[in-house]
Specification:
Length: 338
């Protein structure tokens, strides 16, 4: 069991001591990979994925039995500035849809054999509008981090975190901008589909938020409080918890990657237990993935969020691990090695 987070510095210090993958297990997985009945390298990235996965799970012959998908929902004060093509009440309506099994993520999680949890975070209390003040005070941020931190099943062997929060591509863009620099326009995209005037307005909002807060932001945790959102912080908390538990994570789209980026700032290798599930259609997602040093597994032009692209990618990882652990070696099969 993981300890409860007592304060933000406690979270920071846990991140700084996060465990690494098991090098012996990784070496054993690499050795096994070299003996399987295929030309060397023929399964390409699937081979790398299986070796990476085995290293984190501490075994040279892993399996994926218990994937977990967690969807966090939050509302954003910044929606008052007209940054989304949809009204804020859709967040709560979609939570009910998730609970009834009617959303895209329900279908994809089920197909991947994943348990799915939905956690709505104070939907009737939107975060502060970050163009006017902080999105979350420390206590609020801590509660959101803890919500994610505490929801990861210690027995899960793979984690996908997804989000629902009308307006949340705006805080995601602001986080990326403050963490990686550049102009607001470089990071601001169309989200649910704002028109050109909407995009210009959204870019202004991101620029104002970054200008107001950047002087107060020393690290990713500060950034989450000033510019983030509850579901974004909860995703960061869950990704961090997975690291402590050596549970590999598949990252989803732009918003999920912005949450992860807040952890990446805390220490080198903080996202070594994560792979990028897909590249979304949000304009800045490829740049964000490049900043995180992650190559997406899929690129289908999705622009949904909800963990949908990552949930789909569970099946790629399952394929990698199934081949790695299920295939015969040359010796076992009596196949002549080259
Ligand atoms: C019906 C519906 C379902 C969704 N599921 C995810 N999102 C996605 O769209 C939102 C982000 O886009 P923006 O920043 O433009 O509001 C988030 O809720 C995200 O999860 C949805 C959006 C809608 C409308
Ligand atoms: O990249 C994403 O995950 C995304 C893009 C648009 C809207 N919602 C999510």
């Amino acid at each position: 069991m993981l300890p409860e987070l007592t304060d933000l510095d406690h979270f920071r210090s846990l991140l700084a001591q996060a465990p690494a993958a098991d090098p012996a297990a990784q070496a054993a997985a690499a050795e096994r990979n070299g003996q399987l009945t295929k030309p060397p390298g023929a399964l390409a990235r699937l081979e790398d994925l299986a070796i990476w996965y085995g290293g984190w799970r501490g075994t040279g012959r892993p399996s994926i039995e218990k994937p977990q998908v967690i969807i966090f929902a939050g509302n954003h004060g910044v929606t008052a500035q007209g940054v989304s093509a949809f009204p804020a009440e859709v967040t709560a309506q979609m939570v009910i849809n998730f609970e009834h099994g009617g959303a895209a993520i329900n279908q994809l999680a089920k197909l991947a054999g994943a348990r799915m949890d939905v956690q709505a975070l104070d939907l009737d209390r939107p975060t502060g509008d970050f163009t006017k003040g902080v999105a979350m005070e420390d206590a609020d941020l801590l509660a959101a981090l803890q919500a994610g931190w505490g929801l990861v099943d210690p027995n899960a062997d793979l984690l996908v975190v997804g989000e629902m929060g009308i307006g949340n591509t705006t805080p995601a863009a602001a986080l990326a901008c403050v963490l990686f620099g550049g102009e607001a326009a470089d990071w601001t995209g169309r989200g649910t589909g704002v028109d050109d005037a909407g995009l210009a307005n959204k870019t202004r909002v991101v620029a104002e938020g970054v200008a107001l807060h950047q002087g107060a932001i020393k690290d990713g945790v500060d950034a989450l409080g000033c510019l983030g959102g509850r579901e974004i912080a909860a995703m960061a908390g869950a990704i961090a918890a997975a690291r402590m538990l050596r549970i590999p994570v598949i990252l989803d789209g732009f918003i999920c990657c912005a949450a992860a980026a807040c952890l990446a700032q805390s220490s080198d290798g903080a996202l070594d237990h994560c792979v990028a599930g897909h590249q979304s259609a949000e304009g800045a997602h490829p740049v964000l993935l490049a900043k995180l040093g992650k190559e997406p597994l899929l690129s289908l032009g999705l622009r949904l969020g909800e963990g949908s692209g990552a949930a789909l990618a569970i099946q790629i990882l399952k394929g990698a691990v199934a081949c790695h652990s299920g295939m015969a070696t040359f010796a076992e099969a009596g196949v002549t090695d080259g």
